[in-house]
Amino acid sequence: MEELTILGLSYIKKDQSTDYQYHSLLDDEVLILEGTGSYVLGEEEKQFMEGDTIHIPAGTPYRFRADRDTVMWSGVVTKGELVKLIDEIRK
Q1: CA angle centred on 62, ends 16 and 22, rounded to 5°
Q2: Fewest C-beta atoms under 10 Å: which of 44, 62, 65, 81?
Q3: Are 39 and 46 in contact (CB under 8 A)?
């Protein structure tokens, strides 16, 4: 398994949503650390719970919504993806 790098820690409170966002250069893996809710990925809505990992392809709009609890998650990328991003920035 390739080493993972944590890029951020985020949370939303019960009944809150994030704005739509996307990452243009990198795929993203989101690990749900706490809570339950739903997310929209592209045009598809799905449910998530603590312990789920959500793959977000580069360029795909997404957002999260907390249902009954505060939701906390971490965005992670592989070391290879992080190196790819740094290479793109340096161009």
Answers
A1: 120
A2: 44
A3: yes
Enter the pTM of the model: 0.76
Q: How far apart are CA 12 and CA 84, in angstroms?
A: 29
Number of H helices, E strands in the chain: 1, 7
pLDDT of the residue at 56: 92
**In the chain, at which residue ranges do the beta strands (DSSP E only) sit?**
4-12, 28-34, 36-41, 44-49, 53-56, 62-66, 71-78
Structural domain boundaries of the chain? 4-90
77, 38 Cβ separation under 8 angstroms: no
What is the homologous superfamily of the domain 4-90 according to CATH?
A: Jelly Rolls (2.60.120.10)
Task: Report the distance separating Cα 85 and Cα 26, nearest Å.
Answer: 7
Report pLDDT digits (tens) over 68-83.
Answer: 888 888 887 666 776 7
